[in-house]
């Protein structure tokens, strides 16, 4: 796929015009207050994996609505002191998978917490967390579940789970709450951005080719799923465009980025039709903290930097965790 979005010099200055809800902050403050009315109840159960270099815990904690959410916590074997912790969020359709697929961050000497995404994990990576909340008619996928109102939208539950995942990761006695990073790619990158806007004391945030940013532009510039789910929903639910865009505005990474209080390393790919580079730059340029960098991969699609970006994150986090 040839370059299809704005030229790079224009991308570096691109700013989203997506309107921010006036009650954005109060909406999320109330949402998190309601979630915290339930005890976190983070439980860490040691599991036997056959891996001698790490210790792995099967984690359960209370997310949105007090619903049980799963995760993995992986620690370097023999670790005895408070460790910096990397909290990771998974891409669209995937679940937490199996412990041996998450070894990078423990290999750097850090604790690693990966959150299972509710209702997902039946595609490319298995998951174990159901979403007990139903929704009105929606297009297959997750993008339009409950999209009739921000209170019922699917990602309200996911972003709340993610904040609680950070709290669960920090609850383990071998993690250092003051040295916590949020990372993820695609949907996971979007969740990391949301966490960066909702958790004020993170040490670092690293979203790769993030999804769920600059919705008004994203849904019109690409016809690739998952954004296309929104267009397909509106094809059959005519006349609801304004209502849907209003709901999505409460979950737009651009608005969370404007509240980002930690150093950030973004990445984007100029041939990415799934998460177009202008939508990524919209969030990057809105990021509030001055210490921010974006890696640009000129001829890549949604795979972005892949292992090259993983190496970049390892180097970048070395001075921040």
TrEMBL record:
UniProt GO BP: polysaccharide metabolic process
GO molecular function ontology, one term from the record: carboxylic ester hydrolase activity
Ranges where the Acetyl xylan esterase domain occurs: 1-318
Record-listed substrate binding positions: 92
Active site: 186 (nucleophile), 272 (charge relay system), 302 (charge relay system)
InterPro entries: AB_hydrolase_fold, AXE1_dom, CE7
Pfam families noted in UniProt: AXE1
Record PANTHER family: CEPHALOSPORIN-C DEACETYLASE
Protein name (record): Cephalosporin-C deacetylase
Organism from which the protein derives: Streptomyces aidingensis
Organism classification: Bacteria, Bacillati, Actinomycetota, Actinomycetes, Kitasatosporales
């Amino acid at each position: 796929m040839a370059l299809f979005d704005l030229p790079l010099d224009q991308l570096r200055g691109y700013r989203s015009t997506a309107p921010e809800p006036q009650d954005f902050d109060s909406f999320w403050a109330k949402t998190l207050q309601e979630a915290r009315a339930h005890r976190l109840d983070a439980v860490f159960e040691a599991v036997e994996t056959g891996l001698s270099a790490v210790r792995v815990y099967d984690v359960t904690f209370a997310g949105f609505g007090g619903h049980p959410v799963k995760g993995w916590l992986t620690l370097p074997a023999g670790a005895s002191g408070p460790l910096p912790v990397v909290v990771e969020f998974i891409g669209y359709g995937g679940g937490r998978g199996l412990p041996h697929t998450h070894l990078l961050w423990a290999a750097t000497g850090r604790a690693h917490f990966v959150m299972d995404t509710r209702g997902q994990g039946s595609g490319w990576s298995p998951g174990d967390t159901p979403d007990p909340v139903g929704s009105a008619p929606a297009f297959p996928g997750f993008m339009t579940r409950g999209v009739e109102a921000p209170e019922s939208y699917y990602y309200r539950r996911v972003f709340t789970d993610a904040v609680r995942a950070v709290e669960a990761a920090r609850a383990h006695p071998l993690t250092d709450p003051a040295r916590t990073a949020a990372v993820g790619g695609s949907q996971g990158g979007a969740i990391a951005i949301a966490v960066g806007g909702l958790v004020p004391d993170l040490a670092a945030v690293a979203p790769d080719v993030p999804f769920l940013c600059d919705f008004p532009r994203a849904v019109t510039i690409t016809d690739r799923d998952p954004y296309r789910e929104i267009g397909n929903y509106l094809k059959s639910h005519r006349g609801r465009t304004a209502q849907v865009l209003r709901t999505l505005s409460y979950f737009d990474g651009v608005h969370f980025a404007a509240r980002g209080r930690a150093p950030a390393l973004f990445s984007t790919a100029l041939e990415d039709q799934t998460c177009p580079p202008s939508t990524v730059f919209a969030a990057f340029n809105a990021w509030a903290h001055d210490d921010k960098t974006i890696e640009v991969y000129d001829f890549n699609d949604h795979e972005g930097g892949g292992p090259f970006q993983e190496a970049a994150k390892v180097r970048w986090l070395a001075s921040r965790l």
